[in-house]
Write a structure and sequence with these properties.
Layout: H1 2-30, H2 38-53, H3 59-80, H4 102-115
Helix pairs in contact: 1-3, 2-3
Keywords: Membrane, Transmembrane, Transmembrane helix
């Protein structure tokens, strides 16, 4: 019973640490770095694969790799969704439309009547 409680506690602490580190990195680092969205995903995949092949000498090394994989994957999701450093979606692009010219319609109608 205590083993399950310790596992749940470790899981919650790890989640809080990951979200805390990601929030700080997002605020101070990721907002200043303009990067292709596929680079964090590639790094996350490579680190995820390395986890399987590296013999875990230390349990903390595996834990650190897991944290890095999740941070890079969350960075990819952040860049992919187009959310900027403020946490708000980027504004829509402004469309440049030509002005409506009401006199053209009047002139066209007037010219049509003159031709009859």
């Amino acid at each position: 019973m205590t083993g399950i409680l310790i596992f749940i506690l470790q899981f919650l602490v790890l989640g809080v640490v990951i979200f805390g580190v990601f929030t700080l990195l997002r605020k101070f680092v990721f907002s200043k770095v303009k990067i292709n969205k596929w680079i964090p995903l590639a790094i996350a995949i490579v680190l995820f694969i390395i986890q399987f092949f590296v013999q875990r000498i230390n349990g903390y090394a595996g834990l650190a790799l897991t944290v890095f994989v999740l941070i890079f994957f969350m960075w990819f999701l952040d860049v992919h969704q187009g959310i900027g450093p403020s946490g708000k979606p980027k504004g829509k692009q402004i469309e440049i439309r030509s002005k409506a010219k009401p006199n053209r319609a009047k002139q066209f109608h007037k010219d049509k009547e003159d031709k009859k």
